[in-house]
Amino acid sequence: MPESVSRNHRPLIVASLLLVLVVATAVLLETRTPEPPQKVSQAEAEHLLSEAVRLAQAGDFAGLCRTISATRAACSDTLTDAGMPGTGVPQILSVRAHDNSATPTLVLQVTGQRATGQPYISDFAVIRDANHPDRVTSLTPVYWSGADFATASPCEAGKNDTCASSVDTAPPMP
After folding, report:
1. Is it the case that residue 169 has pLDDT exceeding 80?
2. Per-residue model confidence (pLDDT) at position 14
3. Which of 50, 119, 139, 166 has the most CB atoms less than 10 A away?
4. Please, are residues 69 and 137 in contact by the beta-carbon 8 Å criterion?
5. pLDDT above 90 as % of the chain
6. What are residue 94's DSSP bridge partners?
7. Can you tell me the mean pLDDT for 78-83?
């Protein structure tokens, strides 16, 4: 092969090799197993609960839904039915981790009294914000609502009577 032909093909050969390298890198990155999400620590969950208590007792329910809740709409809906929180700080009854899902959740079961004096036991479920992994949010930010966080079937017999009765009365699927 003449030397002039091989010099003319060098840029094409280099470009082809670079293309192969880029494609190989993309395939390797695509097939790499993603890192599991970082679990929520008890300290992070307790700090978020403290912030939720501060906001609720200050009457800043919009701030509670905006900064603590993982879903603002669900927070607003829950507030409608929950009544007003009491002035006391809720006590933590138990801590349980739900790590068997794609979103590891730490649940603080808390107890206290609403403003009416009625006692409550609620689950304050905390997850990592998917868009900001250094930030935690709550699936159940209205800590005085009586929320019962369940990961498996929320309608198992005896586990959640409200859910079971709503399933019994639901219209048939089309």
Report:
1. no
2. 57
3. 139
4. yes
5. 53
6. 109
7. 91
φ/ψ (deg, to 5) at 29? -65, -40
pLDDT digits (tens, 9 = 90+) for 143-162: 999 999 885 433 443 444 44
Question: Tokens at residue 45, please?
Answer: 């969950």
Question: In the chain, what is the straight-line distance between the N-terminal and C-terminal CA atoms, in Å?
Answer: 73
Q: Which pair of tokens denotes residue 71?
A: 């879903």
Q: What letters, b where the CB count within 10 A reaches 16 and e where it falls short, cover 52-83?
A: bbebbeeeebeebbebbbbeeeebeebbeebb
C-alpha atoms less than 13 angstroms from C-alpha of 51 in its C-beta half-sphere = 18
Query: pLDDT of 33-68, one tens digit each?
Result: 556 678 999 999 999 999 999 999 999 999 999 999
- Tokens describing residue 143: 């800590």
CA-based nearest residue to 67, from 58, 77, 75: 75
Q: Which stretches of 18-147 are assigned E, i.e. beta strand? A: 91-98, 105-113, 119-129, 132-138
